[in-house]
Amino acid sequence: MIDQRFQTAKGILDRLEAYHHKAYFVGGAIRDLLLDRTTGDIDIATSASPQQVQQLFDKVIPVGIEHGTVVVRFEGESFEVTTFRVEGAYSDYRHPDHVHFVDQIEEDLARRDFTINAIAMDKAGDLVDPFSGQRDLNQQMIRTVGDPEQRFSEDPLRMLRALRFSSQLGFTLEPNTYAALKENIEWIEKIAIERITTELEKMFAGTYSGYAMKMFVKANVAEYVPLLAKSNRLLKFLEVLDRPLHSLTEVIAAFSVIEPSISNEQWAKQWKLSNQTKNHAKQLSDAIQQCDKTGLDKWLVYQLDKHLHASLVRITQILSRKQTINLENIKMLYQQLPIHTRQDLAINGHDLISLFPKRNKGPWMKQLLREIEYQVVVGNVNNTKQAIGEWVKKWNPPETN
Length: 401
Ligand code: ATP
Ligand code: MG
What we know:
Hydrophobic Seed Protein; 4 domains; seven-stranded mixed β-sheet; 11 strands; 50% helix
């Protein structure tokens, strides 16, 4: 079924064609359309140069103009429009050294990675499919366009993309494609780690990650990904992993629990993770360990970011922890919490000073606030100024010196 976004994007094709340019829908959107799968972005390929595209539309953002790509804002939506092109070598393993604009869609399709990603569709719905992408969609196969070894040597990231598409779609790797991947997997060492982790994240999150993970281990990919091969326990885990982990946060949290000798900081440094991913992964792995010791309790739920609740459930299930946790339990505990952040406490630093006017300010205040926070969260002390004040009097701040 052609969805509304295709209808909108068709307006872009109409305008390009009205000015005698060729234009097609292309890439992942067509693959997903033919698979009746929800599509991500709708990409457009055209014979018009980026400058010509800029002239034809009011709002054009030159996101990658040197590679022929602009984003066209059209009827409130964004579409990538890329000029038909062929690519030179990728000597920085990130971008092709030069691109060369061409006039035929077939040439543009030939530079694409897999046959299933190299199908174009015109506005009437007719397909251009010179590499039998439809056959491979039917046979559920990932096959490179052209010789796999050559295509992987041009851009080794394609080897990881093969695994991630296999994980997302449940497709097998065509035997020659798999053989070339296994044979040359060390080429991925040259790729920027950010590009690697982007593909790995999608691979772990795929619906059919179990199959992709087995190939990942069999083809020895882990050896060329920083830190992974350092741990046999991790390799064993990957081999039997048969459920998706939805984000790098979940992946790193699971890894940290399975292989405690590799720290969160090491993962963050070697995989160049954002601080947010690093901190969330730490929260999650701490929560899992605490769950193992004490089970789910209010203090644990309080400390964990709300949006990590589902992740905690998923990981504890995947790691088959003794404590089974379900989302309802966490939600219930969360709703019962008397406070949800420290700002919700009925008392603050200033109040502490007025309660202990003779004491110097110092680290004891932070420690005391943390203790109050705990007592309130677990329900030992009511969250009122009076109740906290009474409880605090039993506490002995250090003497002034
Ligand atoms: P997704 O739904 O995950 O975005 P996609 O197929 O759209 O999948 P993108 O990474 O967005 O994947 O790339 C868009 C298209 O560009 C691909 O379908 C493919 O035709 C082409 N492509 C992307 N990366 C490469 C690459 N490294 N080598 C060759 N072609 C590529
Ligand atoms: Mg895409």
